[in-house]
Amino acid sequence: AVHEGPSGTLWAGTDRGINRLDRATGRFTRFLDDPSRPETAGIARVYGLWEAPDGIVWAGTPRGLVRLDPATGAVKRYRQADGLPNESVYSILADDAGSLWVSTNRGLARVTPSADGRNASFRAFDALDGLQSDEFNGGSFHRGPSGTLWFGGILGVTGVAPAEVRNDPFAPPVALLSFSKLGRPLPASEWLRPGSVVLGPREGFFSVEFSALAFRAAAKNRYAWKLEGLDEDWVNAGTRRRADYTSVPPGRYVFRVKAANKDGVWNEDGATLKVVVQPPWWKTPAAIGTWILLLAAGGVVVSRLEKRRVLGKERERSQLVEAELRAHAAEAQARAVQAEAARKTAELEEARAMQLSLLPRETPRVPGFEVAALARTATEVGGDTWDWAVGPDGALALVIGDATGHGVRAGTVVSVMKGLFRGDPFPGHLGLFLDRAGRVLRDLGLPRLHMALAVLVVRGGEATFASAGMPPAWIFRAASGDVEEVLVPGAPLGALVDTPHSSVSFRLGPGDVVLLSSDGLAESPGPGGEPLGYTRAKELFGEAAPLPPEEALAEIAHREEEWRCGRPREDDLTLVVVRRAS
């Protein structure tokens, strides 16, 4: 990251902290490069920089947002626990009010520093607030002449007009939805219309469900409740919309629930429900009067002994009932957890079987060329795939793709794309083929499901390559030993409407090798979460390309495994190599 401050000072962020250039002497002063200091430990690199008019420098890093005072060297770091939606801070822009807007791997955040600079307040925004997605890219940001702030992400660009971002002042009403006792819902006529409910002596086990009537980013609505007469303070429940109570003793209570909208505006009045738990018969006023008469008639000693015996039995009975109910509840919960685990395991196995069934069972055999492929799935099944076709004229078509999401939904998208490719593996124009495939995917109406796809067609020594959101293709030139990168810009299929795709053509000489890969190679996380990166991946391919195709893929996969230090794979890895005979 490079940034020129208001006074003309040039700042540069690197993999080892921040550097300030003194233009008069040509010397650099380094900051944030001492790993022994707690406030700078773990900062591997600097993604974004911004210098405030007062000289304070703000830096975006993989470990949070850093405030640096160059005059004193004082450093303060803000992390996810302080209010950031995510600790990977890519870009920093300032608005006219003095607030900072930062992009992260989980949405945008508006950071408002305090007047003394010791603290800051945060407000997070995500896809529910209208962002292109929750994930943004590094180095993709701009402040327009009108003050609009622009941030680039994986599904497009988000524009923010800071002056128009206002809190929703509407305090949402709260509606009571259901009331259950001992796990069984009661009809609304028994509790909602009268505004109260009466429970028996052993029915102090109940649940209340409710909802705030605020529908803008309703998933962000927050709730708090209390049972007056039992709870001393409000229970802050976050976004949970059900209150559960067990073993409520006999008495008269008022259940109160209040809610706040996505901007934290609370409806303090909320909703209320009167709850009466009746005492057992031996605690009713009539029974107590009877006990008094018996005590008076039978004498002080006998009445005390009798009362002690009765109370002891009732406590034992209550404890047995409570223990039995808790045992039943624990058993039911254990069965539910076991059933959910079995369902998830079956779904993952089904998704894995579907993904493997969609992969080719063998590699193509084309005179003059050698083709090899490698596909390794992640712990949670992803959406990687590849396929091939050979034309009657000896032409070879290869396709490699990555569907968003996991499981059966991703497999559905892969099946559709596979059918389109098999139906027309040698189109007249690869870019038009990708345009048509994108329209078909959008017409399916599957929300938040997209497909990155790349197609390579080889006829003799001529090759044509087109891409929709996939990593670049790399060409190893046997004559020179160099590796060329072929990058064709294009949005993933189904992500944007009417976005045209293009293609490029190039020649393959004797012994030249082409590598197609999914993002599982370049984005493989290594030490400290740092990705392998396209530069390292390109160098790795250049070292392995002279080997036979099968051995080259095995070497690349082995080097990627070493980079991950043996940790479980987080994303699918798919590689396809084609070599022209020498």
Please outline what is shown here.
The protein has 582 residues and is α+β, with helices and mostly antiparallel strands.
Question: Overview of this structure, please?
Answer:
- The protein is an alpha+beta fold.
- It has seven helices and 34 strands.
- Strands 18-24-23-20-21 form a five-stranded mixed sheet, with no helix packed on it. It has a five-stranded antiparallel sheet with strand order 25-34-33-30-31. A five-stranded antiparallel sheet has the order 26-27-28-29-32, covered by helices on one side.
- Helix 1 (285-298) runs antiparallel to helix 2.
- It is globular.
- The model has no long low-confidence stretch (mean pLDDT 88).
**Average predicted local confidence, pLDDT:** 88
Compute the number of helices: 7
Mind summarizing the main beta sheet?
5 strands, mixed
- Tell me what portion of residues adopts beta-strand conformation: 35-45%
- Largest sheet, order of strands side by side? 18-24-23-20-21
Q: Which class do the helix and strand fractions yield?
A: alpha+beta
Rounded Rg: 33 Å
Residue share in helices? 10-25%
Q: Got a strand count? A: 34
Shape estimate: globular
Unreliable parts: none
Distance between the termini: 44 Å
